Request: fold
Amino acid sequence: MDHTYHFFQGNLNHSAGAQDMLLQTMSEWSIDVAVVAESYFVPPADDCWFGDVDGLAAILLRRSAMISPLAMVTRGPGIVALQLENTVVIGVYFSPNRPTVEFERFLDGLEVIARHLSPRSVILAGDFNAKSVAWGSPSTDALGRLLEEWVVAADLCIVNRGSVATCMRWTGESIVELTFASSSIAQRILGWGVVVGAESLSDHRYIRFNLSAPAPTPTAGARGVNSSRRASRSFPRWALKFLKKELLMEASMVAAWTPMRPHAFDVEAEAERFRGAMHRICDASMPRVGPRHCGRRQSPWWSPEIARLRAVSIRASRRCARHRRRRHLRRDDPVAFAEEETRLHGEYRAAKDALWLAIRRAKEQNMERLLDALEADLWGSP
Reply:
């Protein structure tokens, strides 16, 4: 792991609009990996989506992110685990409607996975629906106490900071999205925070954090470290996850057809020729893993009008949140406070619905344009 990974965390409430907004936000913010609960749909043939067996937890890789391939480690009901270089990322979800005894079985399953993964570092993120003062909740419930004990026994650290609510509902607020990490990797998690003021089209807020590169460990003195750094800059790397085998075979055949130069055999010249051929073959069949690039910063259906509607929704959400914080109004005139709260919440719901409808309409129009383009050029441009 030689650079910083940008992580995202959230709950989509099985909403198509929330999933669309998640993908757009990942593109805008250059998020590499997202851990989501209650996704709307996990595409079965998409190599950027990895879901559990029940469709409750998923881990998503941004398509334009030039990072090392993710490898599935295991998955189960409400659990999915992936290998990201030397770190295992686990996404989880546990429903609040399930009894406490099932939560104990759920934690037992996580404990088995954690023991199996040892001594690899682990990032555990998801919606546990467990409340505890240890991660900022006003009080601790039964699930929170069980989770506290389990985290200590599993030697995990709580990454959550502050007491900003992660779930905002008409009935109240709560902190249920949690992030834990192995002690060996916890100090490399930077910038953890709940994103306030972003529209998710869900009643759950986004969470962002970064996983920084490990500090270099010199093994052969300063000269060895410098040589390693020079080597990492000199030799390119390719994203094997995006390898196209057909293009690889075609590029290899083209390279084999290249005639040999009629000169005396020279080892250095032949090594350089072979190296150049391998570079061209790899470049033709897969993208390089190089310096970060922005890539596409928006979805094909995104438009200035949708961006305007999102801004309107965010402003309505902030007005509603500010009103809830005015406790003196609730105390002095509870009837007027409730009426104003109902009005502001209605405006926020209307703004969210308008945004969701605009996204749905834009996606339908984008699909129609794609179909028209296919019909106009059935076999593709030469």
The chain has a mean pLDDT of 83.
